[in-house]
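sorry for the late reply, my laptop died twice this morning and i had to redo everyting from scratch. anyway the thing you sent over, i finally got around to it. pasting the sequence first so we're on the same page, its 365 residues, then the predicted structure underneath. double check i copied it right bc i was rushing
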Amino acid sequence: MKVCVYAICKNESQFARRWVSSMSEADHIYVLDTGSDDGTPELLSSLGAEVEIAVISPWRFDVARNRSLTLVPEDADICVCTDLDEFFHPGWRKLLEEAWVEGTQQAAYRYTWNFNPDGSEGYVFWQEKIHSRHGWEWAHPVHEVPVWLGEGQPRKVYVEGMQLDHRADSTKSRAQYLPLLEQSVREDPDDDRNMHYLGREYYFHGMWREAIDTLLKHVCMPNALWADERCASMRYIARSYMELEERGKAYVWLLRAVAEAPHLREPYMDMARMLYEDGDWDGVVYFSRRALRIAERPRTYICESESWGALPWDLLSLGLYYTGREEEAAAAAERAVELSPWDERLKRNLELMRGKNAVDKSGEI
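ok and here's the structure:
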């Protein structure tokens, strides 16, 4: 099969060598540079990539992606879209070709969107930016996605073992995202995905009322049927109410989030944290244990690293300790330390819990 990588970039010379090395398992690499002034196009060309320069004005990610896709030859079998601050683990092409059976139009693969300060994985989900050459078009000014234009649903395969890591440039501004999301919702007010993203972006900007109003629109949309994303909107509504010091409303929305997606750890953990702040230790134990009953991490972008790390065990240990169950608390604290061995607070808690009566339960741990 003929496998081609394509990308867009601007001023990403710092990532060029790593990216080209990672993508070199493909037959060809195509890049649309949208106006670099740091030598990125020249460097990419010297490394073997085929580069075209085009300024997209007004800027839209979907227009840039579609323009970059035109660089890929018509006879390509598989198109792999990545960004320059991403890289595959070695051996990705072999895994992709083995999974790509006849009639496949799209492939999903494991994607680490960010990493925690200690180097562990942060947000992890399954990405879907590998597709057949024909029948696809990118849509939306930001948070763009490849849209299938053919009949029915595209045939998708999951490529087990294929891993793409994202090591972003933290100095780059996200300022353009909010106006582009607002534009995206104006263009297609019935798109539930973009409504959720806009509400989430308002939350990121500390615009609590705007976040609540927009996310309420999302959960009321008749086509907003995906429980995971509906649950996320409800959790952001609750968090916004917390910021506005309206805890009663936050509590109601967290309960709704749990009911919406009881298969996700995240709403249980949000509730456990809220009850921790209230000193409701039996509630902390209950919701932490409910989260831990979910043993398999879902493949959606909704999953948060905290919920799959030490946090559930940490909160469980505290709830158990403050309700007089010291041995169980110590066992839970041990699990928390196993998952975050560098966390000194967790280590101290474990030693205190092992000592049983070493700490007055009216104090902080």
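Residues 3-166 form a domain with the Spore Coat Polysaccharide Biosynthesis Protein SpsA; Chain A fold (CATH 3.90.550.10).
thats about all i looked at so far, will dig more tmrw
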